[in-house]
Design brief:
The chain is 69% helix and 0% strand. It is mainly α. The chain has one domain. The longest helix is centred in the C-terminal third of the chain and has 50 residues. This is Protein BPS1, chloroplastic.
Length: 349
């Protein structure tokens, strides 16, 4: 793999992980192959849904919410697959567990960063509400206060968030984990590791899109090459190509933001600002009232979209934390004597 700061980022610094699924003299049973194909087919369908029908849908809050929902579904599917494999945690190789725990910590860090940015943007709604309240007045003093609120909103939403800036390092480290551990003499383990690979590819990519959307920095967007063997490879490649191309076009166009709802509010502010900059009643009253109504509508869409996306990010955080806790509990159980106290079992549950 090339260095993290040098695009493109390679996938297989330690060899091709898909070689483990076709070792000499070894084949997966029909049952295991069915489980793997079922998981990968669901992932393919999920990625296909992320392919926007219209390029204007890319980096809308509704598309980002759909992407986060997709991640939650994929992580739910991997939990189901683990159950179907009947592969107790006690049979997991130590390196598998280490990889899982390390990745889960990084995902929690990313979720915290995304939640902090969504919360920060939501706090800007207070400035817009104050501006709209004052814009409904006929007082020149109120127009000056509205202008001040709009200035504050601009400064607030354009401020840098250190947590988002730190996401790049976290994502770079996750890319390094995309190389899978070798699995010896465990067909179930091979299926599990290949499924984990698909989960990690989708997770790293979606998180890189979120980071690029909030940092407005094209280098935060990943181009992930994938093997052609997984059933989801084509859907992922097509989706990544379209989304990355459109985001890079937006970032190179000089826009103040690439987040569509935020851009719409900013456009409404741009229309209103010249009319109130002197603190006098606008001459074009009809146009002015229309701009105020438009700002109120766009601000409401932004506020609702941020709230809904924050709910999905929180759901993903809780899912990741819950899965980590279950794994740790099962590990403790497997290392304990069979006759341990009932209270310990209850604690784990």
């Amino acid at each position: 793999m090339s260095k993290a700061q040098d695009p493109p980022r390679g996938f297989f610094p330690f060899g091709n992980p898909f070689r483990m699924l076709s070792p000499k003299g070894s084949e997966l049973s029909p049952w295991l192959l069915s489980l793997l194909n079922g998981f990968e087919s669901l992932l393919a369908a999920r990625l296909k849904k992320l392919m926007p029908k219209n390029k204007d849908d890319i980096l809308t809050l509704s598309w980002m919410k759909l992407a986060m929902e997709s991640l939650c579904e994929t992580h739910n599917n991997i939990n189901t697959l683990i159950t179907d494999l009947h592969l107790p945690v006690s049979n997991w190789e130590g390196k598998w567990v280490d990889v899982y725990l390390d990745i889960s910590v990084k995902l929690l860090d990313l979720c915290n960063a995304f939640s902090s940015e969504l919360t920060r943007l939501s706090q800007g709604d207070l400035f817009l509400k104050c501006a709209l309240h004052n814009l409904k007045s006929d007082s020149g003093e109120k127009y000056l206060q509205a202008r001040s609120s709009l200035d504050s909103w601009r400064q607030h939403v354009n401020a840098n968030n250190p947590r988002i800036e730190n996401c790049r390092a976290v994502l770079d480290s996750l890319v390094k984990s995309l190389s899978l551990p070798k699995v010896k003499n465990s067909p179930k383990g091979k299926v599990l590791m290949r499924a984990f690979y698909g989960v990690k590819v989708q997770t790293v990519y979606i998180c890189s899109v979120f980071t690029a959307a909030w940092s407005d920095f094209p280098k935060d967007l990943f181009d992930l090459p994938v093997s052609v063997k997984p059933l989801w490879a084509k859907e992922f490649t097509d989706m990544q190509s379209l989304v990355n191309g459109e985001i890079r076009d937006m970032l190179s166009s000089g826009r103040s933001t690439v987040l569509k709802e935020l851009e719409s509010v900013d456009a409404s502010v741009e229309k209103l600002y010249p009319l109130i900059q002197d603190g006098v009643a606008p001459v074009e009253v009809e146009s002015f009232e229309g701009y105020v109504t438009e700002l109120g509508s766009e601000a409401e869409k932004l506020s609702q979209g941020l709230d809904r996306l924050l709910e999905e990010v929180d759901s993903f955080f809780k899912m990741t934390l819950s899965g980590r806790d279950v794994l740790l509990c099962n590990l403790r159980s497997s290392d304990s004597f069979s006759g341990k106290a009932i209270g310990e079992d209850l604690d784990c549950q």
